[in-house]
Design a protein that fits this description.
Layout: H1 5-20, H2 34-52, H3 67-78, E1 85-88, E2 94-97, H4 102-111, H5 114-124, H6 127-134, H7 138-144, H8 146-169
Antiparallel strand pairs: 1-2
Helix pairs in contact: 1-3, 2-4, 2-8, 4-8, 5-8, 6-7
Length: 186
Amino acid sequence: MIPHPLARTLALAAGALLLAGCASRPGAGPAGSPDDTIRAAQQVLTDRCLTGRGLTPPRPDRRAGSAAEEERVADALFGRPPAELSLTLANGVPVRAHTDGCLATAQRTLYGDQERWFRVSTVVNNLKPEAAYRHSSLAAVRARHRADLTAWRHLRAHALDTSARILRATPHTTPHTTPHTTGGHP
């Protein structure tokens, strides 16, 4: 739980924007990029999870009825403290994630191993900052994290396959092309 109400509202708004990037559009045509496909499946999974908990999934154009409702949705979507997963970046900055929210559940379904995905995607998404911090070339940092890059590609391929199956089984969904991060490219 984020203690400050404004911080909580910002977190929920960020989540709504993240999920809006993967909102489905009936009849939108062929599937978009792999990122779009994964985002769309993540949207389907998080919406199902929130709805299953009796909550309305957030959208940028729709506000929750009250601050208490926003907090319930944010807790259900992102999980409640303390964060169970943690990794410290090369520059000493800790990155944390929850394993109990709807987003975590969607990641487990898509990637097969949420803890491993958290670790490798955090490393891969921070290769450039690590290179800058270490005053090293990106190629040298990539070489140092070759195993993480391989794991990232493997888990991402799993997520893409799983996403395609979820979307085929879900009526009226196609990926939206709004860019947002899902661990898009190494």
